[in-house]
Structures are given as structure tokens and as C-alpha cells.
Amino acid sequence: MFHFQGLSPSEVEASRNQHGSNQISPQEVETFWDKLKDNFKDPMIMILVVALIIVTILAVLGFTAWYEGVGIAVAVALATLVATASEFKNEQTFQKLQEEASKIFINTFRQGNLKLIGIDDIVTRDIVLLQPGDKIPADGKIIKGKVRVNQASLTGEAEAVSKIPGESDDMNLDNPHKVYRGTIVEDGEAVMEVQVVGDNTHLGKLAEGLQADERIGPLRMKLAKLADDVAMFGYIGASFIAAAFMFKAIWLDNGGDTAAMMAYVSNWQHMIYDIVTALILAVIIIVVAVPEGLPMMIAIVLAQNMRKLLKSNVLVRQLMGIETSGSLNLLFTDKTGTITKGRLEAAAFMTIADAGGGCQTNDYQTFDSLPPSLMKLLDISLRENTSCVVNCEAENENERILGGNTTERALLKFVNADMKTCVEETAETISYVAFNSSRKFSASRIRLKNMEELTLIKGAPEKIIAKSAFYYTENGDTESLSEQGKKEISAKIDIKADSGFRVIAVGTSQSPAPETMADMPDNIALLGFVLIRDELREESRPAVESLQNAGIHVVMLTGDRSGTAKAIAKDAGLLNSENDYVLRSDDMAKLSDDELKAILPRLKVVSRCLPQDKTRLVKAAQDTGLVVGMTGDGVNDSPALSNADIGFGLGSGTEVAKEASDIVVLDDNILSIANAVHYGRTIYRAIQKFITFQLTVNVSAIAIAFIGPFLGFKLPLTMIQLLWVNLIMDTLAALAFSGEPPLPKHMKEKPKDREEKLITSGMWSSILYNGLFMTLICIVFLKFEPIKGLFHSPEAFMTAFFGLFVFLNNFNKFNVRVEEFNLFAHIFENKGFLKVVGMIFIIQVLITYFGGQMFRTVPLLPVEWLYIVAFSIVIIPFDLARKYICWIFE
């Protein structure tokens, strides 16, 4: 174990003042004004600007009133400002919450103690402990130990390079004595001294040109495709409607009479006015039909739900992760900390009393109860063969053992290493190799005070037993271990594993360790076995059941023995049938890809799982068309996390695993994974509601714009009025539906198929029926003479029509929000919906009273408002009838 004094608080401050902070200057992000300028370059805004120029010219020539141009300018500015402000705020919220939850900490020696220090707080001359999975916090030199580092983030080379102590001022990336910020420790353990921080590091100099890659998920691609299709329909429809308008003006209005048509054409002022009106009508259709906000809906919805997700311990790193989670149908999950509590406790140490005829073993529940002859050897074996560092002076009990993994911390606690009294240094470490999931053991070559050298080994029982030639008796003597003795010991271990214990073998060897320490030494003397208990999380069984009810096949991957894995899987509700398949890693290696695919539907557990097994499982599942989620926490898990459709990094895992993931599960809990899936499905449904609402407005607005002129109304809704409608359709509707709560019923539905269409038959039913019904109501309102008589003037009548159209669509939000008959179900769980709906009603009333000529409105009498509400609210019973008919024919 390493020990260094490190810097004092005053030295830290002095270093920061002299050499600067370790913060890298953030990349330039788009400011509000940059985003506003970009939005004014949007094709839709450009079309409106062209329309504004035309209307302004016509106003100068006396064909139109001046306020129409001003109204369009104000409406364009308002719509663009609101959309920009919403987009900017959502992005800022998303980024800020991500940064807060994604802070990285590193073990650093300060004032003689090892402390977790935030990377941004590291200073020059800090002494930092590097362990597998750590992201190196600054540029510096190795002063003790040896590590293999992946420098792909700087060099592009995936192969890890060795870093060892040595003096060299050359900061070249090939220097074997230097390590660099942003690179990843893959193997080994070392201590570095920080030499360069912040913007002066290699990474800092490159940061300005670096851009984070973001995968585009299937949902966003579907939304973009839908937006393009609807836009194309809008452009074609607008052209057709403009042509139809001119056909009516030239042919129908003149009865097909050639002389009348010639007279019409010769009156160029009148004809130009009609052409401009047709163009304005086309622009109105395009403004309403083109859903420019549709592709951004995911970002808006996620930003609105980010805090809720964080409260559920879910950090979304990539939008793709949360949008794809609604389609997840296979989850490969870790066991330790995810299904179990992850609070490992060494329950006993099993000694070998006699490995002769009829193997005899004894379990000792505490270290102090062990035979004295074994206590010192076990103490040295666990203290000197570990990645952990013991900080005896720490006041906080949880800070006395730092670094390493949960298993190693449990082993040290068993030998009372977390007690305040420090033991005297008993050995010098010559070489050390840390445990990883591929080699399944850790080993340390030490030199004792009497100068005797000894190799300490701990790890998987089957690996160590196979290399064992001796065992320690309870008297501290060593005896030969026969093949029969090995079998009997293995049988005892199987019994312990079947009871849910994780078993760690401990041994020593006089054989010199291999130079690379990659191979286990021969002639091991077995000291005994630590029995580790990791209790099942109380919420694991309900969470597994919830995932299974949601149509998600859950497979547990673990490095434990089959017996331990089976016991936990049964308790978690994963193993429920004799047909359920438990597969060992070595047995899986013997299967062909086709054989592996064939057993996937019955596969529930993979024991002694290796990182390469995870990658193979992901590929096999994806080849069968499944949408695959994978959890991971180690350095070697990153390929599987990257290749999975959704990578779930674990909060307690390595930084490289988190960076390879789409979603970080901050508490490692399978319940949080279930929550991520639940929110993913909720967000998917919210987007579908938004699409249903928006396309319903499209259908009705386009139909009215097309039919209106043929009924004698050239522009039933003006461009300015429709710009307000467009704002209701896009930004405000997105905000209204983005706060929909995750409902239990979402987790009882089947996962969405990869190729499933975004718009379902039920959505089409709502879009077409309600869109056409709104059109019918509007036509009846416009053409039925008794209705006109209800209003005190023609201007009030057209004002009421504008209000009717807005109110119809606002009431339709209630229809779209729920599929059930109870329109108020869970409505108070989405207060944003009520605020948006209420705000639209209020603004519409204000526009009516103060919009004047610009919005073509006049004040209405209270009774006239009652008429508008009465005509518009009928959309609700009509849709209830539609739902009832659909329910009958389901």
C-alpha cells in the first residue's frame, strides 16, 4: 500500500495561485443571441419575412393596411423569441444538471491522508493515487508503481501503454514516465505527481477543437422523417390551394365566360391583389402545416423531466438513451450493487482443518476468533494484497478505507483494518497486480522484515485451488494437498455458494511471481476462504417483476460462481421455471453464435461472466432484432456499453464505464433502471400526444384555409392570427405535454418495436375525426346565418370565429392528454398542462380586447364569450363518443 504526505491547505492555495486552476475553459456554447440569429435563418421564418416584404410593398401601394405588416413583424419576432427562449432555457437546464451530477473525484494524498478530491480542485504538485478505471486528472509523472494507460482520447490508439517511474522532462505522449489528463488507467496501480493543470495540459490545448459526439436515436430520426413528410405535404398543399384560389378567382367567379375572364386579367391591380392574396394564403398553409418544432420535442420533454429523473437517480448523458429505453426488451444487468445491496460483508473465514480422508473445515465468524497461528498470516495476506489504502487517522469511519472495490474493502474490514489503531508496517511491496474480471485473482510480491519474500494471492477458488499444492492447517503448518482433497474442498465451497455466499480463496506461494504477474504462481499453499455476504435489495424483486411485466427479459450477469448466482437469481425472481437457463462463461464459449441465439429466450443467468462475454451477448441479441440494454461498471465493460442500444453505467463504477454509457444509474439500483425505462415510455407517450395535437390543428387549419375562400371568406384566419395558432401548436403544446407523469399502466405495455410507426391507428383516429369535426364546426359557424345574428357586428363575428378556433384546439388538449374517458385523470400531476391551457385562454381574451386591427379583433360581450365556449366545448363529448366507438371495436 502507498503512503505519501501530500500538500497542506496552504500549499494547495499557493500552488493554485502560482500555476492556476485545473478547470479547463469550457467550449464556447451558443449564446441566446446566436441561437436567436440561427432561428431567424430558419426556412419558415425566411418565408414569413418574404411575406412581410410583400405585405409592406402592398401597404405602400395602398392595397393593404399598414398594420398588417407591423402585425406580421411583431408575430414573427414574438414566435421566434418564445421558441428561442424555451430552447435556450431547456438546453441550459439540461447541461447544468448534467455537469452537477457528473463531477469526477480522484483519490489524492493531502496532509498525510488519502482523500477524494474533485478533479477541478487538483493543483500542481498534488500526489494522486491511480487505480484501474480512473480518469487521470492532470498531466504529470509516475513516481511509484506501474500502470497501463489507454491514451486513445489523445492519440487515437486503442492499445494501452505502460507507464513507470522515471525522470524525464519530455512531455511527449510517448514518454513512458508521463501520464496525461483525460486518459484512462486500464490496469495496475501507481502514484503520480501533478505537473501541469487546466488549459496547459495536453487535453486543455485540444479542448477547443473537441466536440462531444452524440448518437442520434431512432425516435429522433422518426420525428425528423415525420416532420419532413408533413412539411412536404404542407408545401404541396399550399401550392395546390394557391392555384385553386386563383382558379376560383379567374374561372369560377367569372362563370367560365371568356370575356369576363379577359376583363379580370386586364384589371392588373385587382389581379395582382388576388395573386398576393393567394401567396399569403399559401404562406399561411406552410406556417401551420410545417411542424418545425417537432424534432426538438425530445429535448424539451427531457429538459422538463431532468430533475425528476435525477431524483430517481437517473442521469441522462445521451438523449438517445432515454428515447430508446421505451423500446427496451432485453436487459443484461450486473448483480453486485444492482440486484444486491452492494454492501459486502465478510461473514466468516473458512479454514481447512484437515484435507485428508474426509475434508474437515471450520467457519470463524470474526477475525479475533481465528486460531492465533493463522491470524497474522491472514492479516498480512489481506492488508498487503489490496488496491485499497487505509487511512487510520480519518475521523469518519467511511473514509478509513479508500480505493479498491467493494470486495477488497469488505476483506480489510474483516481483519479490522478500519479500526483507528494503525498496525505497524510489516512488509515492503515489490510488485502488485490488481484483480480484474479476466484474470480472476490479485497477487502481491512482498518482502517481510526478516527479508523473506512471499507471494500473496487471493481470488476465484477454482483458479487458486487448481494451482494449489499445499494447505495451512489450523496449527499454521503446511500439508500436501491431494487431488481428492481439492475435490472435497471444492464440494464444500459449492455448498457455501449455493447458500448465496461469494467465496474468496486466500493463499501464499514461495515461488517467485512472474515478471508481468499476469499468470498465477505455482505451488500455492491454501490459507482458507473468506465467505462474503451481499444481501438482496428489498426493491429488487418488485423491480424485476415490473420489468418483466413490461415485456423486458432480464438476464443477470455476474462474476460469481453458479451456485451463488442461482441463489441470488431465485431470491430476485429471475429463476422461476426449470426451463430457465443458467450458463457458465466457459460453457458459453463452447456455443456457436446460432446456439447462443437459440437459448437467449430462456437465458436468465450467466455466471463467471467475462467482459468479452457481455459484448458477445449484446451482438447476439441485436442480431435477433432485440433492443438491448447493458449495465457495466468496469474498464473492460466499455465495449459492451458502447455497443448496446442503451448503456447503463453504474454510479459507483469507473469513469470509463460512465463515459461509455448513455445513462448513468447513480445508485446502481435495478429499480432506478426500471424508473429510466418508465420515464422513457412516458416521454415517448408525451411525444405521441404532442404529435396528435399538432396534426389535428394542421388538418383543421388547412381544411378551413382551403374551404374558406370557396364559402366567400378569403381569409377566415389572417396570417397574424395563424402565427398565434402556430405558437400554440409548437412551443406551448410541447410545454403542456412535457410534464405528463409516469403512470403504472406504461409498465404493463409491450416494448415499442424498432420498426413500429410513430403514429398509431388510434392517433390517426383522433387526428382525422377531431380535425374534420373542428372543420365542420367552423364551417357551420361561418355559414349558418342564425349564428351570425348572435353577435353584435360582422367584426365581432369574425373575432368570435378566431376565438372559436383557438378554444376548440385548447379544449382538444384535454382529449389528447388521456386515452381514457376521465379527462381529469392525473391532471394535477401535470400542473404545467393546466398553466399552459389557462394562459392560452387568458391571452386569447387579451388579444380580443387589445389586438385591434393588427389581429382583426374587436371586444366581445360576455354573452358572446359564452357562445364561443358552448360551440368549442362540444369537441369534448364528440371525442368521448369517438373513444367509446373505438373501445367497442377494439
N-end to C-end Cα span: 68 Å
What is the helix tally? 31
Largest sheet: 9 strands, mixed
Sheet/helix structural class: alpha+beta
Report mean pLDDT, rounded to a whole number: 85
CATH class of the largest domain: Mainly Alpha
CATH architecture of the largest domain: Up-down Bundle
Low-confidence stretches: none
> Percent range for helical residues?
40-55%
Bin the strand percentage.
15-25%
Number of domain modules: 4
Number of strands: 26
Evaluate the radius of gyration: 35 Å
Shape: elongated
CATH topology of the largest domain: Calcium-transporting ATPase, transmembrane domain
CATH homology superfamily of the largest domain: Calcium-transporting ATPase, transmembrane domain
Structural account:
This protein is of the alpha+beta class and 890 residues long. The chain has four domains: 9-23 and 105-127 and 134-207, Calcium-transporting ATPase, cytoplasmic transduction domain A (Distorted Sandwich), CATH 2.70.150; 219-297 and 686-889, Calcium-transporting ATPase, transmembrane domain (Up-down Bundle); 314-341 and 537-668, 3-Layer(aba) Sandwich (Rossmann fold); 373-478 and 486-530, 3-Layer(aba) Sandwich (Calcium-transporting ATPase, cytoplasmic domain N), CATH 3.40.1110.10. 49% of the residues lie in helices and 17% in strands. The chain is built from 31 helices and 26 strands. The strands form four sheets. Strands 10, 11, 14, 15, 16, 17, 18, 19 and 20 form a nine-stranded mixed sheet that branches. Strands 8-26-25-24-9-21-23-22 form an eight-stranded mixed sheet, sandwiched between helices. Strands 1, 2, 3, 4, 5, 6 and 7 form a seven-stranded antiparallel sheet that branches. β15 and β16 form a beta hairpin. α4 (66-101) runs parallel beside α24 (719-738), α9 (268-289) runs antiparallel to α23 (670-710) and α23 (670-710) packs antiparallel against α27. The chain is elongated. The two termini are 68 Å apart. The mean pLDDT is 85. It is a multi-pass membrane protein. The chain crosses the membrane at residues 45-63, 230-251, 271-303, 690-711, 717-737, 758-782, 794-811, 832-852, 864-881. It is an enzyme of class 7 (translocase). Keywords: ATP-binding, Calcium, Calcium transport, Ion transport, Magnesium, Membrane, Metal-binding, Nucleotide-binding, Translocase, Transmembrane, Transmembrane helix, Transport. Residues 1-60 form the Cation-transporting P-type ATPase N-terminal domain.
